[in-house]
Write a structure and sequence with these properties.
- With 293 residues, this protein is α+β, with helices and mostly antiparallel strands.
- It is 14% helix and 31% strand.
- The protein contains 7 helices and 18 strands.
- A hairpin with a 3-residue loop joins β17 and β18.
- The structure holds zinc ion.
């Protein structure tokens, strides 16, 4: 089953995606659908049919309670930058306003703030049943399914401090969708994942090339906080980002980022320039003078 969230004049609707149309479900979006105990029955129910236009798709879960991400989870990527294999997943978070739909514009920082926008195609796990302290062996039972994401990143802001949030949480820079494919319809153990920029292949990897499985990351995260239905977990990216290329081909307005995972669909997002700052206090290169102690 494939489930998506459609933008409507009055808000949004959860839909079941069929071959050439959608079926409207009794929920405002996929996140609220997953909060229903027997969401699978609601998702499988008959309903009014609608034509589907990918331009009208919202992020599959528009406002998750928690957005978790894992850095450096791909073996080939870690080897490329000389990093040691991690003992624990490297977790960070994003804001819900970071998320955009599968055809929405990807909002790069205004060039006075940064010109180092970058891409990271990622498999994204979506929580179905919440829980805390979930053992690895039970973690799969807590997942509703998977989608495609792109962990849009602003590298100079990301590397200013040890905490990556400033470069990872930019508003409107993280596509998620196009739909949730339920766990019973996809085996994500060894899927090809690619990211193209203006039709040039930049990333090519497989979901098996990881230090930590989705189940391990769900379990680890659930020790920190209760996972809730609709939470989304970005599971890391393979080699080939702009950051790892010399010279780095940072994203520019007008470029098209195409992120895809075999069997899960694709995201096509055109880069746009974000809003200009209203002062030059934090523009590119500016910052407080560091006084050595
Ligand atoms: Zn990432």
């Amino acid at each position: 089953m494939r489930l998506a969230t459609l933008r409507t004049k009055s808000g949004s609707h959860a839909v079941r995606v069929e071959d050439d149309h959608g079926v409207v479900l009794d929920a405002s979006d996929v996140g609220s659908l997953l909060r229903v105990d027997d969401w699978r029955a609601v998702a499988a129910a008959p309903g009014p049919e609608v034509a589907l236009d990918l331009d009208e798709f919202l992020p599959v879960v528009p406002r998750p309670t928690n957005i978790l991400c894992v850095g450096l989870n791909f073996v080939s990527h870690a080897a490329e930058i000389g990093a040691d294999p991690p003992n624990h997943p490297s977790l960070f978070s994003k804001f819900s306003r970071s998320l955009i739909g599968p055809r929405d514009p990807m909002m790069l920082p205004h060039p006075s703030m940064s010109t180092q926008g970058d891409w990271e195609v990622e498999l994204v796990a979506i929580v179905g049943r919440g829980g805390r302290n979930i053992p690895v062996r039970e973690a799969g039972d807590h997942l509703a399914g998977y989608a495609v994401g792109n962990d849009g990143s602003v590298r100079d802001w990301q590397s200013r401090n040890r905490a990556p949030l400033a470069g990872k949480g930019w508003e409107g820079m993280t596509p998620l969708g196009p739909w949730l494919t339920t766990c019973d319809d996809i085996d994500v153990g060894d899927l090809e994942m690619t990211c193209e920029v203006d039709d040039v292949a930049m990333q090519r990897g497989v979901t098996s090339d990881v230090f930590f499985t989705p189940e391990e990351i769900v379990s680890y995260s659930s020790n920190i906080v209760t996972l809730e239905p609709g939470d989304v977990i970005f599971l890391g990216t393979p080699t080939g980002t702009a950051m790892t290329r010399q010279p780095s081909p940072w994203l520019r307005p007008g470029q098209v980022v195409r992120s895809s995972i075999a069997g899960l669909g694709e995201l096509i997002n055109v880069c746009e320039e974000g809003p200009a700052p209203r002062s030059d206090e934090w523009t590119r290169g500016a910052g407080r003078v560091v006084i050595s102690r």
